[in-house]
Design goal:
- InterPro entries: Rbsml_bL25/Gln-tRNA_synth_N, Ribosomal_bL25/Gln-tRNA_synth, Ribosomal_bL25_b-dom, Ribosomal_bL25_C, Ribosomal_bL25_long, Ribosomal_bL25_short, Ribosomal_L25_dom, Ribosomal_uL5_bac-type.
- The chain is α+β, with helices and mostly antiparallel strands.
- 20% of the residues lie in helices and 41% in strands.
- It is elongated, with a radius of gyration of 23 Å.
- The N and C termini lie far apart (64 Å).
């Protein structure tokens, strides 16, 4: 992995909504919890500015993170995030402990390639529609990708990319793929302008034949 993330944290014993509000207001700290790996949950606090800075990097959401809790390091992934509905404030975070020999389940973003140059867009005047922007995967921590690429280059108008069409990195499996149907990830749809342009070209060809 190209990015490494490590945040300093402190264990906290003062719990409850009132304690969390005091942390945010008086110390500019964000309350959080670490759980999983058959260990007792650990309540922690993280400097809010450090968390905000880390969240600016997309890779933070799908990386193995290191939390340095009072000098003891924990390997975790970010499982949940609570933000203020109106302010640029992170209210709370949930971190899940990871173990090298145990599979984890998490979400990773999709990166769409060759959208502008795909046949349906470049030649057909269509537009790409995204049905999903991330997928839920299962893998060992060492195989966790930052993102998964979806190549749109060969798609024509009306073509659809499904979950089963995605080329997955080694050791990675899609969680949703085992459900009742194969979800659509993206498609190339005709646009209103594209249809009008095609109709205009057809009329011009008909007129020239007459």
């Amino acid at each position: 992995m190209s990015n490494q993330f490590e945040l300093n944290a402190q264990a906290r014993a003062d719990l409850g909504k009132g304690a969390s509000r005091r942390l945010r207001r008086n110390a500019n700290l964000m309350p959080a919890i670490i759980y999983g790996a058959d260990k007792a949950p650990t309540q922690i606090s993280i400097p809010h500015k450090d968390m905000v800075k880390a969240l600016e990097n997309e890779a933070f959401y799908s990386h193995i993170l290191t939390l340095n809790v009072d000098g003891a390091k924990e390997k975790v992934i970010l499982k949940d995030l609570q933000r203020h509905p109106a302010k640029a404030v992170v209210l709370h975070a949930d971190f899940l402990r990871v173990s090298a020999d145990h599979e984890l389940t998490t979400h990773v973003p999709l990166h769409f390639l060759n959208e502008e140059s795909c046949k349906g867009v470049k030649l057909g005047g269509g537009a790409v529609t995204h049905n999903l922007i991330e997928v839920e995967i299962r893998c060992l921590p060492a195989d966790l990708p930052e993102f998964i690429e979806v190549d749109m280059g060969a798609l024509d108008l009306g073509d659809i990319v499904h979950l089963s069409d995605i080329k997955l990195p080694k050791g990675v499996a899609l969680v949703q793929l085992g459900l009742d149907h194969d979800l659509a990830v993206a498609s190339v749809q005709a646009t209103r302008g594209g249809k009008e342009e095609a109709a205009s070209e057809s009329d011009e060809e008909g007129a020239s034949e007459e």
